[in-house]
């Protein structure tokens, strides 16, 4: 720079102060400039000191955080992976909006402030990396499988992402799936009726989460119904559910095992074996459905008929990805899309059950807009701001992934600390979404806080980003939203009036008033780096 202008003189002075105080191994800033600041009322030496206090870049060594031993006890002895949300709150209150922790050999910098999270995500490059996916990649190499969108990195990821994003990232792209989703919603409502009729009160559905899990499994990805909402679930779908459950629990185990050197697997082989066998189950299930659809497409083509369909059909017809990549992506998308959607639906129902007044408001909005008989489609959703607010507020209070990860791809300065390239960051979404500064009355369930009164009134979305942000954000967001909006709208529209007539005294809708009891899904740290079994049930 040229030290001619007033601005540059200030910068020169700042840079010198920064350089003086930063640790030599971590900072690569080079500055030259005038020592003095002509005309400044503060004597040069004193000024440098003031600036140094305000803007000194600190090293990671100076960053506060729990000791390695206390962290070890917290996570490995006290099962901290299941209480990530609590630990985030405790640590951010104790150490501030940026702090460091150690997981065995892995150093993690946690970022628990909305503006700091925004700073990190806004500067990310073209192919952000979420975290260490070594165990996922190892399994794929072992079995000769491909990586999918979650486990891929760099060029491979960019290629797949650019293909898939054209198909499912925009609301209008997924709107065409409304009828398929509504067919599943219809079965869901019928199943709710059946289950309620089996209870003595004729109202309660026990284990609503199990029901939503099956609803989400029936989603549109395979363009085929799996039979999960039938009275008798087909054996293959039961096997898949079991494989998903095993996958979640064994992945948690490999997180523990991840901190242990690989050679120890010979001494404690079980977690790794379970991890591999659950992936085997997931891949083989996906493969059956993908192959089935491929066979149908080939039949249509051989008869000279037009091939129509959704995401899977598009992938199979265009062949922009090879078959192994299609298997991998279908597997990873189903894995990422089932329990995320189902647990969010469960929490939404739980919150409605605990807040009958909100339930009533939403019921009125739905019936005012659609009446009692109109089946909602994606086009109706913008006219249902409280349904959208319900989903946003549920995800704010119970973000299914309470934290997310990024590996820095460049040296960064965040919150006054120098963070070298290659550092694992943990973005603490739960603590930002429960921060009073971002959401006044953060403990209160208020879907209407998301309704904009005018163009300037906007809830800052970096406080709550349940689907992540930017180029590596959730690719299934629009699908998930469609599934949740349509299911909740119809449940409210078709079930609540009955319950309201019969049971206004107790805050029970179609769930019991206790927190939703999940199926045996104890996910721990799942695919997306930081997940909590709390948020997944
Ligand atoms: C309530 C429902 C869901 C929530 C809260 C959710 C949340 C997330 C989050 C936080 C991420 C990480 C984003 C980031 O790193 O910035 C993610 C990634 C991902 N999600 Fe979702 N998700 C949901 C549903 C779905 C569904 C239904 C699908 C599939 C159809 C899906 C597929 C994926 C995939 C493939 C990724 C990895 C994207 C990539 O690395 O490029 N998700 N999701």
UniProtKB/TrEMBL annotation:
Source domain of life: Eukaryota
GO molecular function: heme binding; iron ion binding; monooxygenase activity; oxidoreductase activity, acting on paired donors, with incorporation or reduction of molecular oxygen
UniProt-annotated location(s): Membrane
Residues that hold heme according to the record: 474
Cofactor: heme
GO cellular component, as recorded: mitochondrial inner membrane
GO BP field: C21-steroid hormone biosynthetic process; cellular response to peptide hormone stimulus; cholesterol metabolic process; cortisol metabolic process; glucocorticoid biosynthetic process
UniProt KW Iron keyword: yes
Primary localization: membrane
Family named by the database record: Belongs to the cytochrome P450 family.
Protein name as annotated: Cytochrome P450, family 27, subfamily C, polypeptide 1
Annotated organism of origin: Oncorhynchus mykiss
């Amino acid at each position: 720079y040229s030290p001619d202008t007033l601005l540059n003189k200030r910068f020169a002075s700042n840079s010198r102060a920064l350089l003086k105080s930063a640790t030599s191994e971590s900072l690569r800033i080079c500055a030259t400039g005038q020592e003095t600041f002509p005309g400044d009322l503060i004597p040069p030496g004193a000024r440098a000191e003031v600036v140094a206090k305000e803007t000194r870049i600190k090293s990671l060594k100076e960053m506060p955080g729990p000791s390695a031993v206390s962290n070890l006890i917290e996570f490995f002895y006290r099962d901290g992976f299941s209480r990530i949300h609590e630990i985030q709150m405790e640590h951010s209150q104790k150490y501030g909006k940026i702090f460091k922790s150690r997981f065995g050999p892995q150093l993690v910098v946690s970022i628990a402030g909305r503006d700091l999270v925004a700073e990190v995500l806004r500067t990310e490059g073209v192919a952000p990396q979420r975290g260490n996916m070594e165990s996922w990649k190892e399994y794929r190499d072992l079995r000769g499988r491909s990586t999918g969108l979650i486990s891929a990195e760099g060029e491979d990821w960019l290629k797949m992402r650019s293909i898939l994003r054209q198909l499912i990232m925009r609301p209008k792209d997924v709107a065409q799936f409304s009828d398929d989703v509504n067919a599943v919603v219809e079965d869901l409502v019928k199943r709710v009726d059946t289950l309620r009729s089996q209870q003595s009160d004729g109202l309660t559905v026990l284990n609503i989460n199990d029901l939503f899990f099956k609803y989400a499994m029936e989603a549109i990805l395979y363009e085929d119904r799996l039979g999960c909402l039938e009275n008798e679930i087909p054996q293959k779908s039961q096997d898949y559910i079991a494989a998903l459950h095993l996958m979640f629990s064994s992945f948690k185990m490999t997180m523990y095992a991840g901190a242990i050197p690989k050679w120890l697997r010979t001494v404690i082989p079980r977690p790794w074996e379970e991890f591999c066998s659950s992936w085997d189950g997931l891949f083989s299930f996906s493969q059956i459905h993908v192959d089935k659809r491929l066979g149908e497409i080939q039949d249509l083509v051989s008869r000279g008929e037009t091939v129509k369909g959704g995401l899977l059909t598009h992938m199979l017809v265009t062949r922009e990805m090879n078959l192994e990549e299609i298997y991998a992506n279908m597997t990873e998308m189903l894995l990422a899309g089932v329990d995320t959607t189902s647990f969010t639906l469960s929490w939404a129902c739980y919150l409605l059950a605990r807040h009958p007044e909100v339930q009533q408001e939403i019921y009125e909005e739905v019936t005012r807009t659609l009446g009692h008989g109109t089946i909602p489609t994606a086009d109706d959703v913008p006219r249902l701001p409280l349904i959208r607010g319900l989903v946003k507020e549920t995800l704010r209070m119970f973000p299914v992934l309470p934290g997310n990860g990024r590996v820095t791809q460049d040296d960064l300065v965040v919150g006054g600390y120098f963070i070298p390239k290659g550092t694992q960051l943990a973005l603490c979404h739960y603590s930002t979404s429960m921060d009073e500064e971002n959401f006044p009355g953060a403990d209160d369930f208020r879907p209407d806080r998301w309704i904009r009164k005018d163009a300037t009134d906007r809830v800052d979305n970096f406080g709550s980003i349940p689907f992540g942000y930017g180029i590596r954000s959730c690719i299934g967001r629009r699908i998930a939203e469609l599934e949740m909006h349509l299911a909740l709208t119809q449940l409210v529209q078709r079930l609540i009036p009955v319950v309201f007539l019969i049971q206004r005294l107790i805050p029970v809708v179609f769930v019991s008033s206790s927190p939703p009891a999940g199926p045996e899904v104890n996910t721990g740290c799942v695919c997306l780096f930081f997940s909590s079994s709390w948020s997944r049930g």
